[in-house]
Amino acid sequence: MADPQKFPPDLWYHEAHDWARVDGAEATFGVTWFAQDSLGEIVFWEGPEPGASVSRGEPYAELESVKAVSDVVAPLSGTVLASNEALDDDPSTVNSDPYATGWLVRVRLSDPSEVERLMSAESYSRMVSDA
Fold this sequence. Notes:
Radius of gyration: 13 Å
CATH architecture of the domain at 28-113: Beta Barrel
Structural class: alpha+beta
Largest sheet: 6 strands, antiparallel
Order of helices and strands: EEEHEEEEEHHEH
Number of helices: 4
Strand content: 25-35%
Helix content: 10-25%
């Protein structure tokens, strides 16, 4: 069973360790607990401007940790409505609260049916435990 702290059941997961919280035609994206734990302390983030397009499976932002710079992959396609400006001042929020205040962008979905291609918390948990 998935640990709800590490893998909240109300989210959808992409195999690149990103999550989406879908609310109608909009979604909030972030990186999973597993991703932030693997990266280590996040020290910088660069996200897209509102109005930018993101495509499922393609990089849309960068997270820089003490270990490396990593692309963040979009779990779904759409148009960016907002980036989390609070991360500009404290990018380590991604580490401390990846599913709430550490969100990265809000997006208006261009194809809501893409959600069907994402994993449930339980499926994602199995994937990372098998890795």
